Amino acid sequence: MMGFFQNLSKFLFTQGQSTEQVTVKSEKNERPSHNHILDQFKDCVDFQQRTYPNCHVHILYLPFLVGPEPLKRDIVDPLSEATEDEAAQIFKRSQYKLTGDAKECVKGILDGQAAIFFRDLTYLVDISEPVGRSISQSETETVISGPHDGFVENLSQNLGVLRKKIKSTHLKTVKFEVGEIAKTDVVLAYIDRIADQNMVEDLKKRIQSIESDAVMDSNMLVQLIDENPNSVFPQFMTTERPDAIASKLIGGRIVGFVDGSPSAFVCPTNFFDFFSSPDDYYQRWLLGSALRVLRFIGFLITISFTAFYVSVTTYHYEMIPHTMLLNLTESRAKVPFPPLIEALLMETTIELLREAGARLPTKVGQTIGIVGGIVIGQAAVQAGFTSNILIISVATSAIASFTIPSYIMSASIRLIRFGLIIMAGVLGNLGLMMCIGLVVIHLAGVTNMGTSYLTPLAPMNFADLLDTFVRGPFWGLRKRPSISDSKNKSTNKMRK
Amino acid sequence: MNKVKEKLNVFHITLLIFMAEMNITLFSLPRLIAENIGTNGWIGYLALSAIATFNIFLYWIVYRVGRGASAFEILKSALPKAVIYPVYWGLAIFWIFTASILGKNFFLIFQMLSFQTTNPMFIFLLFCVMVFALLIKDIYGIGKATTVFFFMTIWTVGLTVYQFKDWEIVRFTPHLFQVASQGHSFRNWMEVYSTFIGYELALFLFPHVNKRSKLFQGVFIGHWMVTLAQLAVVLTAFGFFSFHQIESL
Fold first, then answer.
1. What's this model's pTM, rounded to 2 decimal places?
2. How many CA atoms lie within 13 A of A197 on its CB side?
3. Is A212 on the interface with B (CB under 8 A)?
4. Helix crossing, B215-240 with B25-36: angle to 10°?
5. What is the complex's ipTM, to 2 decimals?
6. What span, in angstroms and rounded, lies between the C-alpha atoms of A239 and A245?
7. Measured between beta carbons, which residues in chain B are less than 8 angstroms from residue A296?
8. Which one of A13, A160, A279, B213 has the fewest beta carbons within 10 angstroms of its own beta carbon?
């Protein structure tokens, strides 16, 4: 019977995704030549070549990727007055790496290195300088107490920030190239002897099997490697905070960086990780616990408050206290729509306001936001378009959704809210609970790197619960979370 | 990616059995007990629970003798194919009908209270969608969903304390199994016994457990958790309402 249902679900829901690993054919190594590299970069106005006739050296590089100081130090100063024999001695220095592969040579130039052609040999020297903004606070994840630095788009800078947080030789990094055209660098980081090696190997395979022209951001990459691509819930946590990433690494998780993206992704992740903020650990544990409980209350409010209003005003008037009943009837008296339509209209309006606020330029956004909110709230009620109790309900739900630290999770929950409102309008509290039941059933089937998305609630792990719904005291958090399946469970000692 | 085939542990099994046995008959249990067993019928209810426990013990014997083999393998080795397939069909139809009747029973109550003009089949259809969504998961996924549903609902048992103000032990009467309006017969006691439908799920868990899972420890605990939860409801009802009021619930 179970097999019948599973086959039916495969037939109905399988998207025909390829799960086979792609084997990359190894190409024959072509020796790099000056003309060959010039041909590769033809029609590129940002490509430059220099020749030093005194030592018969040709240099090829992308000037906008290199730094003037390293260029002067490693190219201009040594070679401008050197003879051929002196150049041969210069190129024996360790920063000049001999290469025999044309593809490696091209990649090196694209990474900001300079290709040096001398006699029949080709050398690469790293004279790149990071292109992009400097380390600054994340705009989407702010905390009141705690570090205010955030990751940036440059991969090297991000790795540097991480190394400053975790000064351990056990922190291992593995580099990949993703995207057939963009060839974006992706780095996985994990702490050896803490992270589960099977999970590390699995993640490596997934990244190597990505078939895409370009991967621009971590949030895009995680969608290409997750197990439930059709789920509305994010399965990999992404964050711009180095302190959050460092604590996840120490907890036995694996993190990944994508060059060009300020977000790093973490796995394995469960549903409750998205409700945790670094703030919780920088305050007293009772305060941190209270904040976490508040976030879960916010989650319940945002997902069900408007739907509950709709179900109660449509089907279950007996649930309303009689003192409130008069006010509610009075406020709904002028509204021509049924509660379901009224709620959907207001929720859509709030979503339009939020989306418009995110797209507007900063100078205009705040003004429009305030005016829009006041106009929509006040005018809509006075025009009899909606009731003021619904405005309170919708506004409370919207505010509660922003207590969730992860923007992507709060966006997913806002989407589910619409489903709950519709079901509440169709079948009242029964419909609301049915929809919640369907969401729970869906969540029970979601996995991340083979671990359950509802850990530590289902499957239950009592030790991990101390850092899930509350933030337990540090003396109680002595073991790494079970989701990371670490062999080194204790946080007290680190084998050297 | 190869998913690790996890085995159920005693906690999952306990909650699976608890949620499988806790059903719509909870709403009518006090009346059933009053009509079929009589005064202080909760003692008879406990006796029936003990009989169900013995039944579970018989399943345990099957599990031990079969050395953990699946119930289907045991049936296949014991019965010819010509008999097995009608048995499977019969069991499947029986369980489909039982589940449908239980679901329909539930929705008829809701329909009567809040959706008088709604066709109950529409609600039943949505119920079938939910059941389908659950059944297409593997047993481990069903166990996880069940765990969440357990924590969402178990706290309601604590609401019985709100009735203590009007609860009086004198309403139990000093009589034992008296004034049962349906009379005492095997059929009447079986009607109360039907509230324990659900523990037979243990038969299908054989291939999904190993020695560490402690399958039957979980089944026994789950069964007695249901017994205690339903007993709390029955005792509350018997102390809140008079005996004749319970019969007309």
1. 0.84
2. 4
3. no
4. 70
5. 0.87
6. 7
7. none
8. A13
